[in-house]
Amino acid sequence: MTGRATDVVISGVGVISACGATGAAHLAALDGTRPKPDRAAFNPYSVYRAAPFDVAEAIPSKSDRRQMEPWQHLGVAAARQALGDAGLLGTAALDSLYLNVCASGGAREVEVDFEVLADLRASPDPDADLVAAQARKLRPSFLLGQLSNMLAGNLAIILGVGGGARTFMGDDMAGVDAMADAIARVAHGQSDRIMVGGVLDAERPDLMLAQALGDRLASDAVPSVLDPARRGVVPGSVAAFVVLERAKAAQDRGAGPLAGVSPVSVAAEGPALEGILGQVASGPSFDAIYTSVSGAQPVTADAVTGLRSAHPGTPVIATADLVGHAVEAAFPFAVALSALSVRSGRAGRVLATTACESGAAALVVEAMA
């Protein structure tokens, strides 16, 4: 990438996962021993736990820490790391920094859910009692207050970010939409810089229960996500943010190292990854492919087959084999890992991809000329 005024670059990366709480730890995990999932906490299901990090350093105010759930601690810490890496933390540039944040809802109060269900079993009018419980016990305002817009608000307040925010949630494609929107806005001059990313706290009984009831989870020991025999998802706690900038804006302020990033090519309907690879795969070959496919079938096997067919001999790394699957945060993590690889000199050109039941996406991260 040449660094034209319209080019978009990644100037900062923040990641926390089972691999560690720094970018260096994630690069080391690619070469060394990869983390293993916890198979005891939710037996027979597994989960990748986030590595310990200093919550007090990321969120100095005790009152701020108390009013936030663990997934928001994760998100704020990774976002602070990204801003520090970009050289923006505490600078006037934060006044015009925009946010694109993707995350699922907050944790349910499982004890209250069980209490309501027990009451309904003995109720002569369960429908009426359920409606009453929604007002008295289930606290809908609590759930509404824990959506991704609350995380965006906390990022703005705690880190001093003064631009606007857009929030995304739903499934893997929410992370794709957040990234695609941010890259397009920077490329078209609507903003000099946007921080984009997502977070998932996978270590939640309610989340694990919901996925188990949907028969989505892999049980017991499982093969690699890249193995056609793989069946099911192993969730992982992940927070990943990148700072996107116009190349000229980043260069003018002396930011570096930088990694160029292409627009996101998206297939909005169905797991048609093969159909979009040609849109982003022109030019030199890739040093690596990072894919955030989940392990759910048949979409995972189809995507992996398509990648290997289109790029024979190129190493394919499934991010879920490193950190577990992070839903909304999965694609931002793949992009962040790609940027770490390029900015460190480990790779010159990386393809970041994803595919799920509702769509597929790919983009290129490459070294600046």
UniProtKB/TrEMBL annotation:
<dbReference type="GO" id="GO:0005829">
    <property type="term" value="C:cytosol"/>
</dbReference>
<dbReference type="InterPro" id="IPR014030">
    <property type="entry name" value="Ketoacyl_synth_N"/>
</dbReference>
<dbReference type="Pfam" id="PF00109">
    <property type="entry name" value="ketoacyl-synt"/>
</dbReference>
<protein>
    <submittedName>
        <fullName>3-oxoacyl-(Acyl carrier protein) synthase</fullName>
        <ecNumber>2.3.1.41</ecNumber>
    </submittedName>
</protein>
<keyword id="KW-0012">Acyltransferase</keyword>
<keyword id="KW-0808">Transferase</keyword>
<feature type="domain" description="Beta-ketoacyl synthase-like N-terminal">
    <location>
        <begin position="52"/>
        <end position="249"/>
    </location>
</feature>
<dbReference type="InterPro" id="IPR000794">
    <property type="entry name" value="Beta-ketoacyl_synthase"/>
</dbReference>
<dbReference type="GO" id="GO:0004315">
    <property type="term" value="F:3-oxoacyl-[acyl-carrier-protein] synthase activity"/>
</dbReference>
<dbReference type="InterPro" id="IPR016039">
    <property type="entry name" value="Thiolase-like"/>
</dbReference>
<dbReference type="GO" id="GO:0006633">
    <property type="term" value="P:fatty acid biosynthetic process"/>
</dbReference>
